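User: Can you predict the 3D structure for this chain?
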Amino acid sequence: MVVGGLPEEGELQLGPVRLPAGKRVRAGFEPAVPVAWVTHQAVPGAGRIWAALSAAHPQTGLVPFLLGTLYGEPARPWDTEEFAPPADLVQADRMDAAEVLTEMWDGEMPSDEEEEEEEEEEDEEYGEPWPTVIAPFSKQFPGLAPPGDTLLSNAELDSVLASLPPTRIGLVPARRPADVLPLIGWTPSDQSDALPITAVVRSWEDRFGARLLEVGFAEIRLLASRSPRTRAGAQHLAAEQFAFCDECAGQGLHDVPAITDHLLNSPLWTFWWD
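Assistant: Here is the predicted structure, written as structure tokens:
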């Protein structure tokens, strides 16, 4: 696998793809280091261009992604360069996704005392009884979902890509899409670094063909080529996603049944941290 160098500022030709003028984005503190190349303007047909650039990754060594922003503040985080120093991927190599997700799941579970106090009452945070929030599971993490084995058809994939609006495009030298997040110093707002997130996203890449599609201020989006097609598989994956972030699907979902329904109907997975 080739790992490319960061492009220089200006227009860019990568194989058959011509990108408009872009610039380098820096991360960290003085001295900040260049970590990504991003277009100055939104690019029409961004979804299909992302797909073409993704297909060229083995030759270019550059992972493409779409640029999300903070609602109401389109300059953030890319033009304001709000990124921590790049993290060491060796640490992510030592992380096990099942262990990371188990710890995340356990962190969401109420204590026995809290559970007794809330019994037969609506959960204050989620607005419904706690057993309903994690149904059909118990307080014990159910384990990793089995890998998806049914590919999106070409027509399904093209429909998703064509639905994406004009968007700025970024490129990062990386061996795989999940590694982009720590390499650019991206951090969710409630965590110190992206390494645990990267460990999980790597696992989703392997099990579901879920590639990083978009990176925003406190939000990421993946496109899964092998999303679960059965309710049982979707429920197990929904448990992972419930533990993974504050809200899912770009709809504020944070209960296993609702996330399950979304997974059965869309290969786009959106995650947001408060």
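Residues 10-91+145-272 form one domain. Residues 11 and 21 are 4 Å apart (CA to CA).
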